[in-house]
Design brief:
410 residues, elongated, alpha+beta, 10-stranded mixed β-sheet, 3 domains, Transposase Inhibitor Protein From Tn5, Chain A, domain 1, 10 strands, 10 helices, single chain
């Protein structure tokens, strides 16, 4: 189907034609089936990781974390509540609905002789206030990390809201896991621990307090859309672990500056910059190498694109199931269909031509083929006698002759 506004809509236009089950059976399956939809993420991640070519196995993969709001007018949905949304366009910063935390995987693949990072959303979890969004995101990362045992670098990308200890602590649990995150501009950062002075007393744990305006030297020219500066620092967020702090600014000598943290250093990332599809990551140079982790943060934008596509074209906000489990099941099933349209062109050579097309365009092609298959299958099931078969064959031959006649005239 090109769209599924609800289970009832899907049943009337598709499911009723291929099954004898009733409509209530599908409502029951969403809300009460014993299927563990949390494992959908592991299956999707395993399938997606198999798409990475052997030559690109050493390249980093990225896990993007963010949350999105779904506005609902009714109040009988389970776990519905008033939520703050800074991007709401309803005249207020509050909306009535649900909040979903999601995890997206970005993997390197070949397209037009260049490296493109294919973005595959792994799954959604509804925020129910029983557990914080930070802990919810951390549990999702822990669940899928066993799938990345062969990856050299798995890098979490998130905004400043998720740059807190409840999520950052996951990085210390896995050797191949790092994080690149936006941070609050007022975050306290320190210079590295100074060498011992030999004097009596407890040695200093960190250096002096650093300022974004005074202690970061920006690049001579813009890299992408920003001037960049980098400094090796310590932060209370990461304890005694040395990290990189990046500062970006649209103007070199004026305007506000944004702060980013990276637990991975440029010499720890094996990235084929010259083969990357998009600038500024494909612009090489000795001075740019120190900014590679900061440039990788641009991949986080893929999760925003996914939210837009799924909300606009995939009806992920149109669910009418009331139970919390049913809502999560419905949302994740729609997400699986979306992922299939992203993965199939790279998994099956017969769909090679659709690698440059959007998931919506490829879905239209697949839906047309499904409709044709259902039509012919139901047609064959309804042919019961030789008399009907002979009449049908005559009608088809006549129709083909008419089509050939029209083609001959053209």
């Amino acid at each position: 189907m090109e769209s599924a506004h609800s289970i009832r809509f899907l049943y009337r236009h598709f499911l009723s034609g291929i099954t004898e089950k009733s409509l209530n059976a599908f409502y029951y399956a969403c809300s009460y089936a014993k299927a563990d939809y949390s494992k959908f993420m592991n299956v999707t991640a395993s399938v997606a990781l198999k798409l990475i070519p052997d030559i690109l196995r050493s390249q980093p993969v990225f896990l993007c974390i963010d949350d999105t709001m779904v506005s609902k007018f009714g109040k009988k949905f389970e776990h519905v509540s008033k939520l703050f949304d800074h991007a709401a366009h309803n005249g207020s910063n509050y909306l009535n609905g649900h909040c979903f935390v999601s995890l997206m995987l970005c993997i390197p693949v070949w397209r037009n002789q260049q490296i493109v990072y294919l973005a595959v959303p792994l799954g959604y979890r509804m925020w129910k206030k029983e557990i914080s969004k930070l802990n919810l995101a951390a549990s999702m990362v822990r669940q899928v990390m066993p799938c990345f045992s062969f990856c050299n670098n798995v890098i979490i990308l998130c905004d400043s809201w998720y740059a807190k200890k409840d999520l950052v602590c996951v990085v210390d649990e896995y050797k191949n896991l790092d994080i690149i995150c936006n941070a609050r501009s007022d975050s306290v950062i320190y210079d590295l621990t100074p060498p011992p002075t030999g004097k009596r007393g407890r040695p200093a744990k960190h250096g002096r307090h650093l300022s974004l305006e005074e202690d970061f030297v920006l690049s001579a020219e813009k890299i992408g859309d920003y001037y960049l500066g980098v400094h090796r620092v310590l932060s209370n967020l990461f304890g005694q672990r040395e990290i990189l702090a990046y500062v970006t600014a649209t103007e070199k000598n004026q305007g506000s500056r944004r702060l980013f943290f990276s637990t991975i250093f440029p010499n720890q990332i094996e990235l084929f910059c010259a083969w990357q599809e998009k600038a500024p990551l494909n612009q090489t140079g000795s001075e740019r190498m120190q900014f590679i982790p900061m440039l990788c943060y641009y991949f986080r934008w893929n999760i925003e694109v996914s939210y837009y596509e799924q909300k606009t074209f995939w009806c992920i906000c149109s669910y009418m199931v009331r139970s919390g489990k049913g809502i999560e099941m419905m949302v994740n099933l729609i997400n699986i269909a979306y992922c299939a349209m992203k993965i199939l062109p790279y998994q099956e050579e017969s769909f090679f031509a659709y690698r440059n097309e959007s998931a919506q365009e490829f879905r239209f092609v697949i839906s047309e083929q499904i409709r044709q298959q259902i039509f012919f299958a139901s047609l064959l099931q309804n042919i019961e006698t030789n008399i009907k078969s002979s009449l049908l064959m005559k009608a088809l031959k006549r129709w083909i002759q008419q089509q050939c006649f029209h083609l001959y005239k053209l």
